[in-house]
Structure formats: C-alpha cells, structure tokens
Amino acid sequence: MIDLHTHTNISDGTDTPAQLINKALASGIKVLAITDHDSIAGWDEASAHLRPGMDLVLGSEISCQTDDGISVHMLGLLFDPGHKELQDVLSQTRDNRFGRMERIIIRMNEAGIEITMEEVLAQLSDGATLGRPHLADAMVAKGLAKSRDEIFEKWLHNNSPYYVAHYSPTPERAIALIKEAGGVAVIAHPMASLRGRTVSVESFASYVDAGLDAIEVFHRDHTADQRNLLLGIANDLNVLRTGSSDYHGNGKLNELAENTTEPEQWAALESRADARRVISAS
C-alpha cells in the first residue's frame, strides 16, 4: 500500500514522526509520505526510525492561496531540502501563522468566546507549524466542544466570521518552487468543498502549465462524483492521480491507507523528480 499524504505533531497531527512510522509499518504500508504543513522539521526523526519493509517519501503540504482568495494545498514530494527559496517561502508562511492566529483570537474574544494565545500555544509541539487545529484543541481542552471536528463545524470553517487568511504563495508559485527544488507537485484534496471554496475546473490548466504532476483524486473529503470529475481532469490534462489518507492521528477520523495510490502511478510520479530521494532502511 502507498499513502502519500500524512501529518505528524510537527504540524497538526498527534503522532510523533517515529510513532507514525511504526503505525504505518503495522498497517502494512510499503511507501509512506510525511507531509507536514509548511515544514520539513520531522524529516530527520522519521528517517532515523525507518525500518526494513517500508520506503519513506519526504515532503511538505504547502499552504497556497489563489489571487481571488481560495485556499489551496500543494503537496511537494521528493524535493531538495537545501533549496533556499523554497525554504524561505515555507519559513515566511510559518511565521505569518502567528499573526493570523492572534487576529482570529481577537475576533473570537470580541464575540465573547474566551480563549488566549497562551492556551493555543500550549497545544503546540516544539518546532511545530501553528494552525487552526491547535486553536481547536485548546477550545476542546476548555470544554467548549468535544472534538476538533465540532469546533471546525461551528467556529473555524473557512466561511466563519472568525476566519483570517494568511500569507501564502499562489499555487502556481508553489508548484514552480517545488519543481525548481527537483521535486514533484500534487494538488491535495482540490474538491473538498467542506473546507471552503474550491478551485474551478478551469484552474487546473494553469497548474499543469506551471508543472503540476498529479491530482489527489482519492480522498475521504471527495464524493464519488467529485472523484469522477477529477479523474476526467487528470485524463484530459495528462497528469497522474494519487490517493491518500491525509492521516492526522487522533486529530481527525482519517485512517492510514484508507485511500492509496496505485503502484504504477507512484512509479511514474517518482520518476519525475530530478534525483532518487526515496529513503529505504539500510
């Protein structure tokens, strides 16, 4: 089984990179990608705990925003971690998340929802990328709801009055940086309408022109009709298709390998990187 989209506590997952490696092995996954939000900080720990029987694909889920304000997530896989411009963009995006969180908290406080930045940061692992899930965890800890999902459904969805956008590159810019760094670019859950507005079908041509390699078709947030639509787009634009769990540990219901990528699609995708960067245990 091949799962190309997972998260650890370096971003908004709940497992350490080592714990995720162990769970993936126990689940029978043969190829695992770790793709924390706007960060590669978990790469070393994951690599150090890899054991025979599984290959590790290192990457990041890069936060993007279109010119008209639609949030897009771009999976960068197999890129050179030493590419300075890409790392600068990831760093800028991470830093901006703190100012964004402060603005969200101010809006919530003004509406009578009592939560503080200190309470949110208490949910953050060392070196982790700050995000709305940490705010949700702090609100759950205060007894405002029973789960992250409930918090997001009621207060933190993209159409909420508390939503605040943050700096992020356009999808085209993120794709270009991933490609310049020698990696491959996969647009994540592009039709996940429960997360907010989604990109138009016409947008995909621009992404392919920028170098998009694949579309994440098989994802729990896509309906059967959306999957069929995305398969048609992938075929029409001659790009690859992937399936992934988007696993977050206890942070979401997603289970490891609940959606997977076909081996031939993965082989074609890996071949598009400018060097072989898949890590195997010695």
Keywords:
38% helix, 10 helices, 8-stranded mixed sheet, DNA polymerase, domain 1, 8 strands, alpha/beta, TIM Barrel
Could you write a compact summary of the structure shown?
The protein is α/β, with parallel strands linked by helices and 282 residues long. It contains ten helices and eight strands. It folds into two domains: 205 residues, Metal-dependent hydrolases (TIM Barrel, Alpha-Beta Barrel); 59 residues, DNA polymerase, domain 1, CATH 1.10.150.650.
Give the ordered list of helices and strands.
EHEHEEHHHHHEHEHEHE
Poorly predicted regions: none
CATH structural class of the largest domain: Alpha Beta
Distance between the termini: 20 Å
Please name the CATH topology of the largest domain.
Answer: TIM Barrel
For CATH, the homologous superfamily of the largest domain is named as Metal-dependent hydrolases
Query: Mind summarizing the main beta sheet?
Result: 8 strands, mixed
Radius of gyration, in Å, reads 18 Å
Kindly give the count of domains: 2
Structural class: alpha/beta
Q: How many DSSP-defined strands? A: 8
Proportion of strand residues: 15-25%
The mean pLDDT is 95
Helix percentage: 25-40%
CATH architect. name of the largest domain: Alpha-Beta Barrel
Number of helices: 10
Global shape: globular
